[in-house]
């Protein structure tokens, strides 16, 4: 295995993987998180917010937490009996903790908004130091409450049932096999 190949670490149900601290590593983290969310039957709203949080935190790890020869780690897990999605990104730059309060960069700057986006999307987020030289930046997204129906699919609690309304523009029925569909 070379230094750029991902190393899975997770127990069943969680995603935990070490990746190369580069743009390619951050992109792979987003792709793996997207697949994990699909496997957990995440709703589109949950997946969209979670993937944006993953994108921002992994980009920060690749850009600001990079140490040559060291990886960053992405972890996704459900906590609180499946009511909270926790995203954690650990890198080896404990000396570079995010500072609070967050300040918006000047309008002409192209970067510096990642944690502002995380702050807007996550219900909670923070950073903590681990064993030297690690730090973990984490974000939690509270999942919407169920609407009287159990989740469809897995037991993750990510999919929340809703009563669906009739499609106002249903597709026309298919014609019998071998016949062209009538026009008009």
Main traits of this protein?
184 residues; kinase; 6 strands; alpha+beta; six-stranded antiparallel beta sheet; HATPase_C_sf; serine/threonine-protein kinase; transferase
Description:
The chain is of the alpha+beta class and 184 residues long. It has a single domain (7-142), classed as Histidine kinase-like ATPase, C-terminal domain (Heat Shock Protein 90). 25% of the residues lie in helices and 20% in strands. The chain is built from three helices and six strands, in the order ββααββαββ. It has a six-stranded antiparallel beta sheet with strand order 1-2-3-4-6-5, with helices on one face. The radius of gyration is 20 Å and the shape is globular. Mean pLDDT is 80; it is low at 7-11, 147-157 and 159-165.
């Amino acid at each position: 295995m070379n230094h750029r190949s991902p190393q899975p670490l997770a127990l069943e149900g969680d995603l935990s993987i070490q990746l190369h601290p580069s743009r390619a590593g951050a992109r792979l983290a987003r792709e793996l998180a997207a697949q994990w969310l699909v496997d957990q039957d995440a709703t589109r709203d949950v997946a969209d917010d979670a993937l944006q949080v993953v994108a921002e935190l992994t980009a920060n790890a690749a850009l600001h937490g990079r140490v040559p020869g060291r990886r960053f780690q992405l972890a996704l897990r459900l906590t609180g009996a499946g009511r909270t999605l926790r995203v954690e990104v650990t890198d080896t730059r404990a000396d570079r903790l995010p500072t609070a309060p967050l300040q918006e960069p000047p309008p002409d700057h192209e970067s510096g908004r990642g944690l502002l986006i995380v702050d807007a999307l996550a219900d909670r987020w923070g950073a903590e130091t681990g064993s030297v030289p690690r730090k973990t930046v984490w974000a939690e997204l509270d999942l919407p409450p169920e609407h009287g129906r159990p989740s469809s699919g897995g037991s993750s609690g990510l999919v929340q049932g809703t009563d669906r309304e009739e499609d106002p523009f249903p597709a026309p029925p298919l014609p019998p096999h071998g016949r062209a569909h009538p026009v008009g």
